[in-house]
Amino acid sequence: MEKITARTNDKIKYAVRLGESASFRKQNGEFFLEGARLCFDAAKTGVEIKQAFFTASALEKYSAYAESIIATGCICFEISGDVAKKLSDTENPQGIFCICKSKEKTEKLNYSGKYLALENLQDPSNLGAVCRTVEALGLDGLIVSGGCDINNPKALRAAMGSSMRISLVEPQNLVSLLEDAAANGMQTYASVPRSDASDIRKVSLEGGVIICVGNEGSGLSQSAIEACKDAVTIPMGGRAESFNASAAAAILAWELMR
Amino acid sequence: MEKITARTNDKIKYAVRLGESASFRKQNGEFFLEGARLCFDAAKTGVEIKQAFFTASALEKYSAYAESIIATGCICFEISGDVAKKLSDTENPQGIFCICKSKEKTEKLNYSGKYLALENLQDPSNLGAVCRTVEALGLDGLIVSGGCDINNPKALRAAMGSSMRISLVEPQNLVSLLEDAAANGMQTYASVPRSDASDIRKVSLEGGVIICVGNEGSGLSQSAIEACKDAVTIPMGGRAESFNASAAAAILAWELMR
Question: In which element (H, E) is residue B231 found?
Fold first, then answer.
């Protein structure tokens, strides 16, 4: 295993940039993963790991995880504790990092499937939480559009591996996807915090369904709302103006699968 | 309005420490609030504001909010932009900050009410999201115990004012509260990610109910689980091991009020 001890090593600089920049990830079709368990999840899920970085102590402490990662045949490097600190997002890095190939983007829907669609969700913790919900409740997939950066390191951490396991649909244009879905018999719903929208408990959730959830601050775009067949809402008994986006997504996904 | 231009001013140091330290907040019975809207929410909700700090530009930009805060009769200071940066948790502070009196702690339950109880929830974003859910769905209150630090600045921000409006119950001892609740006819449920627990859709949620949600990593303590009448779970169809804590809380609260 080649050793890297310089923070200025080109491979380290490349990895840091992958972690920091959404456009750099997009341009290179790769993403950066930190943590013993997450990197192991990538290996187990069949995500293509291109490079892996381990500190000597991590190779010992997380030997079972490290072996599974090394067994994928990726290029492996041993790094110093100082380099691990440079790569890490946390104060006490576990010392295992990977560069992974991004999944091929697909726009393909299962027209009889159940989906959540996220438009422009900004908070990576919310994004990760929604991925976990989609996996836990067994939805057919998650549609991500707009500024949803599923490979943001904080989103990856919050997703606890689920974003690598669920079926992701990444349309160029959410409106076109919704129109195509409706033309193929799917129910398409825009969730809005408006009391005149249909109660989520009272609409048909049979067959193929997409429920759209919008940005934390501004909600769904007008064009996405108009592209949906109906607007739905979670009736609010209290005085709050709205839910946290991932809490709303959880309730909607639960109704979808209930 | 007295002017403060030194970062080392004692009042500023006190405010910073309130924001940073849970034990200092507890010791002084006060908490620190940042943001034009949140400080306005405090004023509107009737939270006792002891001191308020404004930059000159904030007094102009957020004049309506500032006037409501000043009208509470609190001691007001004008601060420089540099001092605002010292006080702020964000890169571009809005320039409005308050020191508020913490609510009197209560252990009193409405025995016919619907409650979520949180034990040791660590992530302030989750805590804030649960407060919003409790308010939006109109639960009778939120029980917080263990390490749940409701006045953490990040939790306050995520709650968007809801934590100041909902009814909070803060027991010295969660187990004693659960036993008292059960003795007074309430249903008490421990939510666990275990498939042998009762399906949340199939248990009685009539009358007074408490559903307990545990720590993100380790779940509920054994003593809390044992103090509850039954263990409930959200059936998971997929491969994920569990939900994000605030997503689970949202689904459970929704079932409670559904």
Answer: strand B230-233
- What global pTM score does this model have? 0.93
The tens digit of pLDDT for each residue in B149-178 reads: 899 999 999 999 999 999 999 999 999 999
Does the residue B106 lie in any domain?
no
> Domain ends where: A48, A73, A101?
A101
Contact A238 B125 (CB under 8 A): no
Mark yes or no for CB contact B254/A258 under 8 Å.
no
Is position B239 within any domain?
A: yes
* C-alpha–C-alpha distance, residues A186 and A205, integer Å: 10
Give the per-residue pLDDT at A195. 87
Q: Are residues A124 and A90 in the same domain?
A: no
Q: Give pLDDT tens digits along chain A (258 positions).
A: 999 999 999 999 999 999 999 999 999 999 999 999 999 999 999 999 999 999 999 999 999 999 999 999 999 999 999 999 999 988 899 999 999 999 888 889 999 999 999 999 999 999 999 999 999 999 999 999 988 889 999 999 999 999 999 999 999 999 999 999 999 999 999 999 988 999 999 999 999 999 999 999 999 999 999 999 999 999 987 666 789 999 999 999 999 998
Q: Supply the CATH number for residue A128's domain.
A: 3.40.1280.10
Q: Does residue A107 sit within a domain? A: no
Taken in order B47, B53, B57, B63, is the CA torsion positive or negative? Answer: positive
Distance CA B67, CA A118 (A): 38
First to last CA, chain A: 50
Whether B129 and B218 map to the same domain: the answer is yes
Smallest Cα–Cα separation from B64: which of B22, B36, B33? B36
Chain B residues close to A232, C-beta within 8 Å: none
Please indicate, yes or no, if residue B222 is contained in any of the structural domains.
Answer: yes
Closest Cβ opposite residue B237 in set A138, A162, A240 = A138
CATH code at position A7: 3.30.1330.30
Cα→Cα distances B148→A179, B68, B119, B124, Å: 45, 30, 7, 8
What domain range is B39 assigned to?
2-101
Rounded to a whole number of angstroms, the distance from the CA of A237 to the nearest CA of chain B is: 5
How many domains does chain A fold into? Answer: 2
Cβ neighbours for B135, distance < 8 A, ≥ 6 positions apart: A238, A239, A240, B162, B165, B166
A248 and A168 both lie in a single domain? yes
